[in-house]
Design brief:
The chain is of the alpha/beta class. It has one domain (about 5-124): Trna Endonuclease, Chain: A, domain 1 (3-Layer(aba) Sandwich), CATH 3.40.1350. Helices cover about 30% and strands about 25% of the residues. It contains 3 helices and 7 strands. The protein has helices at about 10-20, 75-90, 105-115, and strands spanning about 25-30, 40, 50, 55-60, 60-70, 95-100, 120-124. Strands 1-4-5-6-7 form a 5-stranded mixed sheet, with helices on both faces. The protein has a two-stranded antiparallel sheet with strand order 2-3. Strand 5 (about 60-70), helix 2 (about 75-90) and strand 6 (about 95-100) form a beta-alpha-beta unit. The protein is globular and about 30 Å long.
Amino acid sequence: MITQDKAKYSEELSHSISYLESLGYSKIKADIDGYETPKSYLKKGSKIEVTPDIVAEKEGRKHIFDLSLKSQKPRLLKSKWLFLNTLSQIKSYRFRIITTRGHYKFTNETINDINLNTVKLIKI
């Protein structure tokens, strides 16, 4: 989810965090009040900051989660996903995309547009 949509979809983000807790994830960091904020990455040459929505650990391995919800700026979302996917491959993390009912079609189209078919999709 991009920064402009954070206030609009805060309920979905908190629901996703509780879902991940029920699956056994620990050391959860999220870009929401009440949780520690994950590390942000600054795009070189601009003021664009990329922050994963949720970062958690399970069985000693770090997982990066990003919420996929309909957005007015899908191009920004695509570049964020490509960056997070590349980062997770370099650092041996796991990258997952979380989506909710009503956003499946948007998510699948966006994933297909950028050929990110190797990323696992979590449907809540």
